[in-house]
Every structure is written in C-alpha cells, then in structure tokens.
C-alpha cells in the first residue's frame, strides 16, 4: 500500500505526459495547432519536472523493466516538438508571448542536470566512442549515430552560454549586429565545438559510407534502402547546422552547396517512395522534425539558385505536415525569400549581400495562421538598408485566392535573432529548446 501511494502521483504524471503526446498528435493531424501547442507546452513542462526532481532516478527506474527505450522515445519526441515551437507560437510575437516562451525553456544549468540523469538511457551501450572500420548493418550505424549525437548535445549548455554572450541585443543597430556576427566567427569556444563535432561526424561517416553505398544499390530490399538514405540525410543536415559560428560567412555558406544538393535529391527519393505507397492524410503527417525542415533550410540558405528552386519544387510536389509545420506554408516562406534575394542584388560583393540575407528570420504567429518575415530592405528615400517586418494571412491559401499578400508592420521584437537550423535570440541565447536531448531518428 505505501508503495502504491507513493507511485500513484508519478504514474499519473507519466500518464499525463503520454496523453499529451497523443493529444498533440491528434490535434496536429487535424491541423488544430493552437490546441497542439498547448499540449506540447504542457508536456515539455511536465517531463522537465519529471526528470529534474530530487527523486528522478528512482522514479524513472519504476517506469518499466527497461525504461531506457521509453524515456529515449518520449524525450526525443518532445525535443523535436520543442524545436518546432521555436518558430510557431500560440499568440503574437510580442513581449508577453516571449516571456511565456522563455518560461518553457530550460536554463543551461537545468539542461546539464537533466542530461546527466538521462545519459544512461540515451547511451546504454558502452564503448561506442571507438568506431569500427565499417558498420556491419543499419542497426549498428544507428547505435553509433545516437551515441555520437548524444555527445554533441551534451555540449549544448556550454554552447548556449556562448551564444547568449555573443548575440547583439538591438537588431536595428546594424553595426553591433555585424560585430556580433564577427564575434561568432572568431569565437574560440564555438570554433572548438564545431571542430570537435565535425571530427566526430567524419569518423561516423567513414564507417557509414561503405554501408551506404552497399545498401543504396537498386537490387536490394526497400526497407534498408530508405532507412539508410534517411539516416544519411540527418548526417548531412547536422554537418551543416553544427557549424553555427560561420553562418554569416559567405564562403562557408557557398561551400555547402554540394550537401544542399544531396539533401534535396535524397529528400525527393524518400518523398516519392512515400507518395507511391499512399496519399492518405495519415501518411502525409509525421511527428518528426521531418524532411520539410531540411528542404526549407536549403530553399532559403543555399547559394545556388537552381538548388533553391529544386527544394521549392519538391516542397510543392509532396505536400505534407510534419508536426506543427506545413509544407504549404513553408513553401510560401521560400517564395517570399526568393523575392528578398532579388531585392538584395546590388553591385556590392557577395559577402556584403550575404550579411544582409543572413538576417532573414521567419516565424508563425497565432498558431500558424499568420506568417512573419523579418529581413533587410533598402529604403528608397534614404538609400539606407533597414530591418523590416512583414506579415501575411495564411488563411488566404485555404480560400484559394492565389499567393499570399504581404504587408509591412512595426518590428515585433527589437532582439537580434539568429536562424541557422535552429533559432536563437538575444533574450534567451537558446539554441536547443526543452532539455537539449535530441535523438535523431531515420
């Protein structure tokens, strides 16, 4: 009886966490994003409290005979949803909304505490730091991938602190923003993080590449084929996103064109395969970060215009919903970005032009019903470049009235925002939301 009394509140909390996943999935499938966001926010708060309490280890071990897989899946799902809440907010992007979002984000100290308690569940297999010459199968490659990405994520608290210190507070002080971007590129701490991450990624790639080549030949079975491709896409994306220090460096951004091209090509392979199987709504919906996120990143950031257009073509050809994200709306973001690219063309150097383009930030207000885009535009009267904000009503797409109509409005935030794979702003300095525990699944 005493054990039952002690365990009962915990079981209720676990039930509530799992129900939040169920409800968020249902509301996401029905495109009721306001309710989905409420369930995600509630679930993130509960699971952080569950993992961060004084009796966390005892309670976690009572979950199941082997709680590691359950906790890994639950925390990974909420982390992916947390990434999505970085750009989709319930109300307006104003001070009050920002404050409510900040309350849901973990401090570096909280991340470090929760990471230490969950580490044995995310890294149950010892000795995965020394890579074999070649992975023998997909399961081994995935085990090493999870262990490697876990080591990278464990450095999140330190990176968060560096980002917070380096970001400029006033987005309209363009001189200070430029200096902040320069500080990113010259930061020894970010450079060390990037160097270590890329070293680990390269070790994993060398062991993975023979397996990838072997399993992507036409004569082999479908299941291994697509899983291998999906895992390689995640590798390509992480290899780009981890180099956050150089997001303002035109030469670096230009150099990732081959990776961007491969991401688009492989995403299309997977989406085409899914499309051949079924066009039912449930098959066009996932609770993962999804291929749409990789495609919109390429459509905005790749410096090869043909690759950008290819990414947009794939987004349009295979409509889908990945959790809180809609490929329809992300395609509109990509179209708007293309127009900004055209406006940005001057006789200045490519480096100068990219410094303006890397200031682009897109967000979704009012549970995705309103699109927000911040970017640099030249004032025709003063001949000076200014940071402006435009918005568009997403319901225009549902009414079938053609493309979105964008209107200018005052800046909803004065904070400098960085958007490179993840989103960070000077108010929080947060690159990874939730607990920083991101499990990458193929």
* Helical proportion, percent range: 55-70%
Rg, Cα atoms, Å? 22 Å
Mean pLDDT score, rounded? 78
The major beta sheet can be summarized as: 4 strands, antiparallel
**Contiguous helical run count:** 18
Structural class: alpha+beta
Strand order of the largest sheet: 4-5-6-7
Keywords: DNA-binding, Metal-binding, Nucleus, Transcription, Transcription regulation, Zinc
Outline the secondary-structure elements.
Layout: H1 2-29, H2 33-52, H3 56-61, H4 67-84, H5 95-104, H6 108-122, H7 138-153, H8 156-166, H9 174-186, H10 188-215, H11 222-241, H12 250-255, H13 257-277, E1 285-286, H14 291-301, H15 305-317, E2 321-322, E3 325-326, H16 327-344, H17 350-357, E4 361-365, E5 370-378, E6 385-393, H18 395-398, E7 407-409, E8 417-420, E9 422-425
Parallel strand pairs: 1-2
Antiparallel strand pairs: 2-3, 4-5, 5-6, 6-7, 8-9
Overview of the molecule:
Mean pLDDT is 78; it is low at 1-10 and 425-442. β5 (370-378) and β6 (385-393) form a beta hairpin. The strands form 3 sheets. A 4-stranded antiparallel β-sheet has the order 4-5-6-7. A 3-stranded mixed β-sheet has the order 1-2-3, sandwiched between helices. A two-stranded antiparallel sheet has the order 8-9. α4 packs across α6, α10 (188-215) runs antiparallel to α11 and α14 packs antiparallel against α15. The longest helix is centred in the first third of the chain and has 28 residues, at 2-29. The radius of gyration is 22 Å and the shape is globular. It is α+β, with helices and mostly antiparallel strands. The chain has one domain (2-425). Helices cover 60% and strands 9% of the residues.
């Amino acid at each position: 009886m005493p054990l039952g009394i002690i365990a009962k509140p915990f079981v209720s909390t676990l039930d509530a966490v799992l129900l939040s996943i169920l409800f968020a999935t249902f509301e996401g499938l029905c495109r009721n994003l306001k309710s989905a966001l409420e369930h995600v926010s509630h679930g993130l708060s509960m699971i952080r409290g569950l993992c961060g309490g004084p009796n966390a280890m005892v309670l976690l071990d009572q979950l199941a005979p082997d709680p590691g897989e359950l906790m890994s899946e639950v925390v990974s799902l909420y982390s992916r949803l947390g990434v999505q809440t970085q750009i989709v907010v319930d109300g307006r992007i104003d001070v009050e909304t920002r404050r409510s979002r900040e309350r849901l984000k973990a401090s570096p100290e909280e991340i470090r505490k929760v990471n230490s308690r969950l580490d044995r569940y995310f890294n149950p297999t010892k000795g995965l730091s020394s890579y074999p010459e070649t992975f023998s199968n997909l399961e081994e490659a995935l085990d090493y991938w999870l262990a490697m990405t876990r080591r990278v994520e464990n450095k999140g608290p330190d990176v968060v602190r560096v980002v917070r210190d380096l970001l400029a507070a006033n987005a309209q002080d363009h001189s200070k923003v430029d200096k902040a971007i320069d500080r990113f590129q010259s930061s020894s701490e970010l450079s060390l993080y990037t160097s270590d991450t890329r070293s680990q990624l390269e070790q994993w790639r060398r062991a993975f590449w023979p397996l990838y080549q072997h399993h992507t030949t036409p004569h082999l079975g479908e299941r291994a084929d697509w899983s291998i491709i999906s895992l390689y896409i995640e590798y390509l994306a992480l290899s780009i996103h981890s180099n956050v220090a150089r997001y303002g460096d035109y030469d670096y951004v230009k150099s990732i064109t081959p990776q961007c091209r491969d991401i688009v090509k492989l995403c299309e392979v997977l989406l085409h395969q899914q499309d051949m199987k079924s066009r039912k709504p449930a098959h066009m919906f996932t609770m993962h970060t999804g291929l749409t996120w990789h495609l919109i990143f390429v459509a905005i950031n790749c410096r090869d215009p043909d690759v950008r257009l290819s990414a947009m073509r794939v987004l349009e050809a295979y409509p889908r919903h990945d959790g809180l994200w809609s490929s329809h709306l992300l395609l509109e973001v990509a179209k708007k970005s293309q127009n900004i690219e055209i406006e940005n063309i001057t006789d200045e150097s490519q480096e100068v032009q990219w410094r303006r383009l890397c200031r682009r930030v897109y967000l979704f207000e009012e549970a995705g019903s309103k699109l927000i885009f911040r970017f640099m535009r030249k004032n025709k009267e003063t001949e000076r470049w200014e940071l402006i904000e435009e918005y568009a009503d997403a319901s225009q797409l549902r009414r079938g009235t053609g493309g979105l109509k964008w209107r200018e409005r005052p800046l909803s935030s004065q904070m400098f925002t960085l958007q490179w794979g993840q989103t960070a702003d000077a108010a929080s300095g947060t690159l990874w939301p939730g607990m920083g525990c991101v499990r990458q699944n193929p």
